[in-house]
Write a structure and sequence with these properties.
- The chain has 326 residues and is α/β, with parallel strands linked by helices.
- 35% of the residues lie in helices and 14% in strands.
- It has 13 helices and twelve strands.
- Strand 3 (50-55), helix 3 and strand 4 form a beta-alpha-beta unit.
- The radius of gyration is 22 Å and the shape is elongated.
- Bound molecules: NADP nicotinamide-adenine-dinucleotide phosphate and 2-keto-D-gluconic acid.
- Residues 56, 76-79, 102, 282, 285 line the site of 2-keto-D-gluconic acid.
Length: 326
């Protein structure tokens, strides 16, 4: 996208940002960086100049209200729980995210994490690296994917991509969303508990919202059962982590694979200490290729908004109705 038809509103980058976003934006806009994402650090004149935010972190209501001429918040990531999109909508401010461009990458990671969890591959590799294969013999026999029944919590863009992959594994697939999806053959369960009771392998790709907070709790682990595997590539806030630790410790479920946590990057020591938890540091989309595509989409949203078209490319549902005024 060209910068020739745009004005030059200031774009605020609070905290970390993918360097490709910064490179693209600085070719056309004055950028304001604040290291810790606190708008109180800005002068009144700077606050007034900010018309866009490119963010990978928290943009709450107070942050939004501190910027009187803010028009757009471009979130780097499809999950936008760190942005108060409802408040932005109430102020006529556009929020965009980065859907689709990361779907296949995250689905690949979900499958890798599932296999790591069931087949204990990271632990088997450690066994070799520690010389235990030579000293003690082969790694122990593990659980299997064979005969498993898969439940997907959050059958959206990524959930469907995970399901497509697991079809090739010959495994039956069911799902829970708030709404049944027309035209797909997978079994639908109207509640998460019913889904968990019907399967032994629950993969969560659900967003963090007030409705999903700690929705994966002790009751869900009980329903999943002693052979149960829980994999989470959605958001950590959807899980009651204390209940998960207890379920893993007591054998209520067999094992868990987690890419996301409630208080990242802080992972509860109790989870780290558990041998039946396979843990990744939120890397599901973390390839050079996919992060570049996410960066382009985040930047393109800002370019498009401030072009003569005055249109966002990928608005979040809460702000889909928001239009530019000037
Ligand atoms: P999406 O297409 O919007 O899918 C989300 C699904 O969740 C929808 O099918 C939605 O269906 C369902 N859902 C939402 N609220 C629900 C609720 N209260 N109860 C039951 N189901 C609910 O989004 P996506 O692109 O697949 O991404 C999904 C999430 O994955 C993101 O929000 C993000 O948190 C996470 N993610 C993580 C990583 C990572 O690095 N680990 C990377 C990318 C994305 P209904 O609306 O019918 O309920
Ligand atoms: C990113 C993600 O790691 O898109 C999401 O929702 O969780 C990941 O792709 C994250 O957004 C980067 O800040």
């Amino acid at each position: 996208m060209s910068a020739s038809n745009i004005e030059a509103p200031a774009i605020l980058i609070p905290g970390r940002m993918h360097p490709h976003v910064t490179e693209r934006l600085k070719s056309a806009f004055p950028l304001i960086h604040i290291a810790d994402g606190d708008p109180a650090l800005l002068s009144a004149e700077m606050k007034a100049s900010v018309r866009g935010i490119a963010s990978m972190g928290t943009v709450n209501a107070a942050f939004i209200d501190a910027l009187p001429n803010l028009e757009i918040i471009a979130n780097f990531g499809v999950g936008y729980d760190a942005v108060d999109a409802a408040h932005a909508a109430s102020r006529g401010i556009m929020v965009t995210n980065t859907p689709d461009v990361l779907t296949e990458e995250v689905a690949d990671t979900a499958i890798g994490l599932l296999i790591n969890t069931v087949r204990e591959l990271p632990r088997a590799e450690d066994w070799l690296r520690q010389g235990r294969w030579v000293r003690e013999g082969g790694y122990r026999l593990t659980a299997t994917l064979r005969g498993r029944r898969i439940g997907i919590f959050g059958m959206g863009r990524i959930g469907l991509a995970v399901a497509r992959r697991l079809e090739a594994f010959g495994l039956p697939i069911a799902y829970h969303n708030r709404r049944r999806i027309d035209g797909i053959a997978y079994a639908y369960f109207p509640t998460l508990k019913e889904l968990a009771a019907a399967v032994d392998t629950l993969i969560s790709v659900a967003p963090a919202t007030p409705q999903t907070e700690k929705i994966v709790n002790a009751e869900i682990f009980e329903a999943l059962g002693a052979d149960g595997i829980f994999v989470n590539v959605g958001r950590g806030a959807t899980v009651d982590e204390a209940a998960l630790v207890e379920a893993l410790s007591k054998g209520t479920i067999l094992a868990a694979g987690l890419d996301v946590f409630a208080d990242e990057p802080n992972v509860p020591q109790a989870l780290i200490d558990l041998p039946n938890a396979s843990l990744l540091p939120h890397v599901a989309s973390a390839t050079v290729h996919t992060r570049q595509a996410m960066a382009d989409l985040a930047a393109d949203n800002i370019f498009s908004w401030f072009s003569s078209e005055r249109r966002a490319l990928t608005p979040v549902p809460e702000t889909a109705h928001v239009t530019a005024t000037g």
